[in-house]
Specification:
The chain is mainly alpha-helical. Helix content is 63%, strand content 7%.
Length: 122
């Protein structure tokens, strides 16, 4: 994982684990790596991963079973998708629209580009 300067490491690690949940690498009620395993895999401090896991626990993405480790909450992939949608709507979309406006792009042009994009991926 390449560390970015603009986002705390524990949130970058949360993104990695959430990506794995959305891609179904870890499924509902499935075990995720221990704090130590995840730290070793990503070459970060165990305390950073503990903070990551606490962050995800507070958002009902993962939960702990005493003595057994961390597991994925049922429906976590849908919660992650909704969290990311809200983050985009509340933070990224304003920036995105500002760029589009600075280019002089019209809503119709944006709509057509989006339709073209969807046609290419379907």
């Amino acid at each position: 994982m390449a560390i970015q300067d603009n986002k705390p490491v524990y949130l970058q690690l949360a993104d990695v684990l959430m990506d794995d949940i959305v891609s179904r690498k870890y499924t509902d009620d499935g075990r995720v790596p221990s704090v130590r395993e995840f730290a070793a895999d990503h070459q970060v401090n165990v305390n950073t991963v503990a903070r990551t896991y606490e962050y995800l626990t507070q958002r009902d993405i993962i939960y702990t079973r005493r003595g057994m480790g961390y597991f994925v909450w049922s429906g976590a992939a849908a919660r992650v998708a909704e969290m990311r949608r809200q983050e985009f709507l509340n933070h990224d979309m304003g920036y995105f629209f500002g760029i589009m406006r600075s280019f002089g792009m019209t809503p119709d042009e944006l709509s057509n580009l989006y339709k073209e994009y969807l046609g290419k991926i379907n």
